[in-house]
Amino acid sequence: MQVLFKVIRQKSPESAPHIQTYELDVEPGNTILDCLNRIKWEQDGSLAFRKNCRNTICGSCAMRINGRSALACKENVGDELSRLQRIAASTISEASDGKPAPPVMTIAPMGNMPVVKDLVVDMKSFWDNLQAVDPFVCTQARQIPEREFLQTPEERDRLNQMGNCILCGACYSECNAREVNPDFVGPHALAKAHRMVIDSRDSQTEERLARYGEGTQGVWGCTRCYYCNSVCPMDVVPMDQIGKIKEKILDRQDDQTNRSVRHRKVLIELVKNGGWIDERRFGVKVVGNSFRDLKGLMSLAPLGLRMIASGKFPLTFERSEGTEEVRSLIEAAQQLEAEQKS
Question: What is the pLDDT of residues 18-48, one digit of tens each?
Fold first, then answer.
């Protein structure tokens, strides 16, 4: 079948991107990488993209395929067209002569990283942020052993999911938090960070947790958009790993540690007491730290005045009808979590 490949091209970092269209006769089982290879070999030798193993191992060929980051060696034409048809009623449009136009595949470079050329991006920030979390086992606090550090099969199995990460950059490319917050290290780094936190051989667990919970460069910078989970080709589910680090931080820190920890603890407290959030108390307790942080409290004044002026400030609070049920569910979940940890 005939397929149009619209490739977002860019000659250099300084030049403007443009779309170049190539038409290929392909089979549904052809991978996107197969098609790009044919374009390069048969139509345009100047097209630049990364590739290596062709077998979903190295992660080199990550790019945006029809709007979402994926591995070109893993996705094939037939599956992509089916996916597009599920999103829209049809990917086929009418040509000017009334005949059905060929389906279109749009290929673009990954996001959150500057383009070097065409589909090749500069991954320096990706690697720098990975290095920032110290993604290696630290045993400096221990004496040099006479033999290697041993792990039980159960301890080793806990590391498998994070160890499957091939550092392709797909999650980093789609990360909304990274797009608006250049300090955020990214889901790939924090997934690796969780591997270090639960590694029985590592001697820096407490230091790591304290560092990973600082500001918005660590776990509290995640906006929980789920994009990293949805595009990960190896089922690492980075956002879930970030959540597990948050749980460990919350177990060790109280609401005076920082605003991020206080936000989570106050949220649970208010929902337990009222079934939903009492907005009057939430800002005062989190931002104003229950009147301990006068600067934070004053920062709420403009918002409060606007809410009062527009009639949106809640003067009273009514507990939800299911408050007791909500409280029992939260307490049951907390008890189950405590039992699992013990």
Answer: 999 999 999 999 999 999 999 999 999 999 9
Any idea what DSSP says for residue 324? H
Give the integer Cα–Cα distance in Å for 182 and 255: 26
Q: Specify the domain boundaries for CATH 3.10.20.30 within the chain.
A: 2-117
Contact 64/107 with Cβ under 8 angstroms?
Answer: yes
Yes or no: domain 2-117 corresponds to CATH 3.10.20.30: yes
Sheet holding 18-25, edge to edge: 18-25, 2-9, 104-108, 62-65, 68-71
Homologous superfamily of 123-252 in CATH? Alpha-helical ferredoxin (1.10.1060.10)
The predicted model scores a pTM of: 0.86
Least confident of 8-22, 129-143, 150-164, 209-223: 129-143
The ranges of the chain annotated as CATH 1.10.1060.10 are: 123-252
